[in-house]
Design goal:
mainly alpha
């Protein structure tokens, strides 16, 4: 019997280490340090969500010294008082309910404008309420 000759095995290349990954390049904008908390823009925008964050930011230490945050907190509280007063107009039949609906619609539009401007770092003064808030915040 003839033995079949098997072709010689090819040599396997030696094991090579995978290439080492390089660290990504450092970006110009560094994140805030862990102990600094929220930025002024974020704190001011969060103050408009309900009156609870507005009150908390007026009491908490790093935020109650920042005029921009204080201004937006006081303006949020002023808008909440206007909404509360508008609620009493809803008791009056027909005319009071029309005033209530128009007032609440205007209040919602002002609230959205204030929220967007606060998140962008801009000061938007609502008539009457904004002057009071600026006086209380020291702006």
């Amino acid at each position: 019997m003839d033995e079949q000759q098997q072709p010689p095995y090819e040599q396997v290349p030696p094991y090579q280490q995978p290439p080492q990954y390089q660290q990504p390049p450092q970006y110009a904008a560094q994140p805030q340090a862990a102990g600094e908390g929220l930025s002024d823009n974020a704190a001011a925008a969060i103050a408009y969500i309900t009156i609870i964050p507005a009150i908390i930011f007026l009491v908490m230490e790093p935020y109650n010294r920042k005029p921009f945050v204080k201004f937006n907190c006081f303006q949020c509280l002023g808008l909440a008082v206007v909404g509360f007063v508008l609620g009493f107009f809803n008791i009056i039949p027909i005319l009071g309910q029309i005033i209530f609906l128009i007032g609440m619609l205007a209040l919602m539009v002002l609230w959205v404008i204030c929220l967007i401007n606060a998140s962008q770092g801009k000061v938007f003064k609502v008539p009457v309420i904004g002057n009071f808030a600026a006086q209380q915040a020291g702006l």
